[in-house]
Amino acid sequence: MKERCKQLLKEYWGYSDFRPSQWDVIESVLAGKDSLALFPTGGGKSLCYQIPGLMLDGLAIIISPLIALMEDQMEELHSRGITAKAYNSNLDANQKIRLLDECEAGAINFLFIAPESLKNEQFIQRLQRLHISFVAIDEAHCVAQWGHDFRPSYFEIALFRSKVKQVPFLALTATATEKVITEIIENLGLTDVNIFKRPFFRENLSYFVVNEQNTYQQLINIVKKNPQTGIVYANSRKKTMEVSNWLSNHGASVAAYHAGLPKEKRSHIQEQWKKGNIKIVVATNAFGMGINKENVRWVCHLQIPESCESYFQEAGRAGRDGKPGFSVILYQDNGKKWLAEKEESLLQKAELIDIYQKICNYFHIAIGDGLGNIYSFSFEDFLSKTGLTKNISLKAFQYFQAIDLLKLTQSINQNVKIKITNKQFNIHNFNPNQTKIIRLWENLLRNYPLDGNQWFSLNMEYYTRILSVNQDRVKSYLKLMENMKLLKFQDNNLSKMTFLHSREESKFLRINESKLNYINKQALHKAQQMYLYVENKDICRANWILDYFGDSNTGISCGTCDVCIRKKRSKNNREKIQTKIHNILQKGSINLKDLVSQFNYFDRQDILDILKEWESEEKISLFRDIIQLK
Which residues of the chain have a pLDDT value below 70? Predict the structure, then answer.
């Protein structure tokens, strides 16, 4: 059996043998056993379900939390000639029926589904009619409340498991503590489970933490010294644009990537980056998940990450090819201040009640109404009209979802869609001054048929270009036409909020305080651990991470992180720095910033001390950051 699997590995992926532990997981799945694979980012988790999916008769079901992640994984399979499709919210009812018919006919190897789909009893009934070989749960830490990306929808998986008891389940994750592993097993209903762990220690990956006031300049230094492929993580869409523009103005090959960009543009940026035509992507934290790009040399976080789990997963996107890579946290905040802000931002009962009322008022929902209603939701507009902060609102939404009060579905398919319902409208009924609206309507009539039952996607970049306006303005024109009953307009860029209960008066709103305390305790614990990591000056960073995740391979020293480098610097290092500074200054005067940039970051304090000493001894002159020998 192993030889046949190796043949498939060679035929489809070009590899002659499996990585450590991969075959053990594959063998367990092929034997019909429940399995849990804990592999670091880049450890080859996907092959653990891809090979069994090709080996076994029947349909392999892959449960994945993000449509974008599904699309990346399907694209990778399609590129190898393997049939894979996704059942998600991008499909209409007829497309879903046809897809399940294909599955029943045995025409598909892999079916990707979102966990939310398992709430649909009719969908589960269709799945029960299929010959399912096994079920793989990607990003399985999402089922654990102590995991870094808890999603209540993952609880549906255990119910599904109870209805297909004979089918083996495979849970896959890159980051999980012992507590999270226990929760994964319990919450997914895994039995007699085989657990496989690959060591978290990666010899080729170095970790750095830099507390720097001028983070942009330090980032430029990193880019200039490391011109290879990299990822910069920023904590907001606005920040990704600012940093991208800054790097571009300094000659870097760079693009900003965030969920607010049109789908076509995001796909283009991702493809260009994968091909190496763009070297650096400045992104929010969703970028990189599921992307099979092995030659990323470095990853930089421009703020303290939210948790050790998310940081380790994102940092692990560097050096997946086994060659040297590094990850750096580059931040200008005071660590204690950052932690204090996290403590202050913990949810309070009164805040939750207030935010819930503001949500209901935003949608004009009366007391006793709202059950089952679905509303299009613009997060930015909500914050603007309510005055709430983004951080508190997101945490409140997470809590409301955890107690099944409401459900917020993030938009992934960002196509704007229309269907024209009135082609007989006389164009002269428009205001003659509305020239751009008239031009848009004429263009729509030429390019889209009158079909009240079919939606058509618009190329928004095309319309912004021919009308010389931004996307929001085009949408406002479409909204006006919808109000005039000329067409129906669907803005899929908006999220969807579903109310799972009727609106209640504030005094009757059920806030589960024990649940709230649990969430706050969890959030505070993660923040405290992240704070301890960035403030650590004594323990090897690789060793610290291994200990956090309960890896037995502790006590090591990587020798390449900032902590290890500081410890092993030789006593004569200062003399070497003095000699190098003197040789540089003999060539002429130099700006302090340019001088420092020619040294290792960890030499900076010694450089400043030496210059201060030489200035007092009148060996140099230092005026307005220009240094020269006397």
Answer: 144-153, 286, 288-292, 409-415, 451-453, 492-494, 552-555, 570-572, 601
Token digits for 335? 């660590």
For residue range 316-342, list pLDDT tens digits in order: 899 988 899 999 999 887 788 889 988
What end-to-end distance do the CA atoms of the chain give, in Å? 77
Q: Enter the tokens of residue 26.
A: 């594959």
Q: Which two tokens stand for residue 257?
A: 């990537």
| Antiparallel, parallel or unpaired: β 110-113 and 132-137 | unpaired
In whole angstroms, what is the distance from residue 459 CA to residue 456 CA? Answer: 10
Strand stretches in 479-599, DSSP E: 487-491, 495-499, 590-591
Phi, psi dihedral angles at 553 (to 5 degrees):
-85, 50
Nearest to 171 by CA among 184, 160, 157: 184
Helix (H, G, I), strand (E, B) or coil at 532: helix
Listed in sequence order, the DSSP H helices in 129-234 are 156-163, 178-188, 215-225
Q: Which residues contact 373 (CB under 8 A, 6 or more apart)?
A: 363, 365, 498, 499
**CA triple 311-315-316, angle to 5 deg:** 120
Q: What angle do CA 248, 253, 257 make, to 5 degrees?
A: 80
Quickly tell me which residue has 């001088």 as its tokens: 595
